[in-house]
Amino acid sequence: MDGAAERYSFIAEERFRRRGGGVKMDWMTAEEKQFVNEVLAALKEYGVRSKEREKVKFQIVEHIQESHEHGTDALEELGGAEGFVKDYVEINEIDVHSRIKKTHLTKKESGRSILPALLASAAAYFMSQILFSLFLTEAFNPLKLNDFEYNLLYRISGNSWWNSLLVLVSLGISVLAGVLIQTMNKRKMGA
Hints:
By secondary structure, the chain is mainly α. It contains seven helices and no strands. It has helices at about 5-20, 30-45, 50-70, 75-80, 80-90, 95-135, 160-190. Helix 2 (about 30-45) packs antiparallel against helix 3 (about 50-70) and helix 6 runs antiparallel to helix 7 (about 160-190). The relative contact order is 0.08.
């Protein structure tokens, strides 16, 4: 980037920050709005962050506004949306092929990434049921004769309300464990 382009970029970013990031397009023609929306959609497909897309939107809208003031056609100066995005990708050195591969990999791995969460949920459920059976019920008390049919999945106590409470707590613990494992996997895949 040459000096003038860097200064313009800095000035545009400073104006963008002062305005709070929002850009109004009420005064633009339908073709200009469509151009901006096509550029933003294409940038989103390339994985450009929303903050960067807002900056690009601000710069395009500002260019269109200046073109209106000078009486020139902004869309003719900017070219097509595809060409604009291609130039943006080249200037900012975004590797299109690696982004596409990464998108395919994350879609492929997303199906496999839920398996550890499901296994952790099942393990947490069974472990909490065993611990509750041992310490909070009389299911394994050798001194007391149990008059109910014990089942680790859903019947660990003779009292129905106590059994329901323990099963619900076990389910809550298992869901929490699954969510924790899933978020850890997503963070690990994103890093």
